[in-house]
Structure formats: structure tokens, C-alpha cells
Amino acid sequence: PPTATPAPTAIPERNTETVSLAFAGDIVGQPGLTTAAEAVEGEVASYDYSSELEGVTSTLQGSDLAACTLVGTLSEKGPFGEGYRMSSEMTAALAGVGFQVVNTATDHILDDGVDGLVETAEALYLGGLMSVGAYRSEQLHGIFMANVRDVDIAVLSYTYGTGGVSVADSPWCVDILTQDYMTGQETVDYERIDADIATAKSNGADIVICFVYWWDNTQYYTTPRDNQTEVVGHMFANGVDIVIGSGVKTPQPIETRVVERADGTNANCVVCYSLSNLMSCFNDVYTNLSATVRISISRDVDSGEVWISGVSYEPLFMLDTDDYADYTSPSYRYRVLDAYGAMSEHEAGGADISDLTYDAIVEGVEALRSILGAQYDSANGGAQLAFPY
Q1: pTM for this structure?
Q2: Contact 70, 103 (CB under 8 A)
């Protein structure tokens, strides 16, 4: 005779606390952003980037730790608005909208040499922000650790290359993904990556985050390439929990997976292959689309177990009023818009944007759903992840 139907085993409710992490895309230090932010009084110029960036503020609210990537320098080695060089006043804008951590390991961080790199990291420090991936001094080179509401978080960061600038005399200044960064840029330094992950774990990290500034051959692709998926797979298998990609210039998918680690435990892992440009002057297809990704980290108060429990994103739209000359503040050419906020305001009769811009934002949101994954859209509630039994 058939056996009795087994009774399901009840999973006990957990007493948990949740930490919210927020990740935004690349602030690309193109000259247009600085020129538009400039105000001259007499012979003194100042730069107010806050109006260009303020649209991201609402998407960062309520986060316990928020991070983005700076592509360029905050250096006085040459005129602001030339090359990928911005004024240190950018730090006030970044802190003002809610960022605490800035990834600086990119192929433009050495545009003004090691001195410009140090100047950039120093400006961020003086502005109350933490630079990861590039360092003010050899003594300060190391893995950034933060305790966020009793969750220990480690942050790693690597750039595929340095724009052709050798760091042989200052190997401490920036973390590099490849061993052959001055030539083929193809040989990933997995030994170094594994050592950094091991150090993060030995420092007590519950969650390991890694920023990766991808190769040039990934740019403008809306799906990840083989070199990206290979690096992510290796990082997940060896202890990284969250990978945030940059340098691609267009969005690429978000993925979640349960990974079995070498010690036999399972972990929920998240990769955002590319969050595109948070702020830039690019006008190629999809380059004005971005998102703030919110990742929830749960901690069992009783057992101390920590896991990723949720992923969602909020769409952002980079408005260039030369393309949509209908914004009510024409003195600001570039503005980052909270896409859902701008849509709701327009639908309620707000006058900030016209039907033309509204239609462009709606089209952009649909494109983001298709690229990033509709299941992670905050409008759909995002994705909830169970404890990885």
C-alpha cells in the first residue's frame, strides 16, 4: 500500500535584522558635466554638481551604506573640464545625495599620474567619503572593512588596466585585475584576488563585495561577455558575495544564484554586471539609462548567520536638455532623474518635463526591465531570497 503522505517540516521563523546596501553606476568625469556646473564670480570659478546629481537622492534614502564609481580624477593637475578631471567640489555633491563609499579603481584614475590619484583619494577623504581601489599612501593600502549594524562587510575593487600608465614604482596605488595590465590585459590575477578574499574572510567579513571595472571589449554590450562571466564565477566560488561591474557604459543584467562554497556551505550571491552611467554626457543608445540597486542583507540575531535576502532596483534617467529642450530649469543642462519619481510627477500634472521627455523615460524604463531583469524592478517588489539551506 502507498505510504502516508509525509508532513512538511516547518522552517522556524528567524529573529532577523536587515542591512540595506545601495549601489549606483558610474560618474564619468567628462568635460561637459563640469562646464555645465561652473559658475564664475569675478575671476573665481566654482562648481556645483549637486543640481546635476540630486535625482539619485530619493533612490538612496534608507540605505545603510551607499556606493558609486568615479571614472576620472578630482585633481588640480590641469584645468577642470578637460579630460576626465573634475573639481573636488564633486565630493560635496556625492556626500549630499547620500553616498559614503566611492570606487576609484578605473582606467582613468591615473590620467594625472600617481599624484593625481593621491589627490583624488585625499579629496574624497576630506569630503567625508571613502575611496576604495585607489589609495592615498602605501600605508593606507588595504581592504576596506565596515561594520554596518553588526554585519561585517569587506569591499574589494579592481580595474582591468590603468590607461597605459605603469605603477611599477607605486604598486600600492591602485588594485589591478590583470597581471599584464600594460600589454594584453588578458591574464587575470586570480592568485591576488584569492589572497584578498582570504584576507577579507580572516578579518571577519560576513559579506564580501567586489567592484570590477571591466575591459574595453565589454563596452556597449547589454549582455555580459565570456571574460566577465569567468571572473564572476571564480569570485563567487572563492568567497565573494556581491559583484558590481562598471566601465561598460550601458546596462547589463542583474543575476542571483545560490553558490556552493569549498567548505560545503551555500551562499546567496548577486552580480550586477553593469549599472551603466549614473552621470555622463554619453548619448549612445542606453548610455543614459542606469539604476540604483538595493541589496538587503539579513542577520539572524540568535545564530549570527548572515545572508543576502533581497535585490531590487530603481531606474534612473540621465537627462540632457539639449536632447529634450523642455526642462523647466534650462540653466542646468544635465540632470539625473529618478525615473519613477519623474513619471509620477508628470502623470499628476507636474510641469517639470514635457510629454516628449516623459515618453523617453517610459521607453527607457521598459528597456531597463528587459536588460536588468523585470523580477528585480522595485515596481514589482524586487526579488526576495530565502536563507540558502
Answers
A1: 0.94
A2: yes
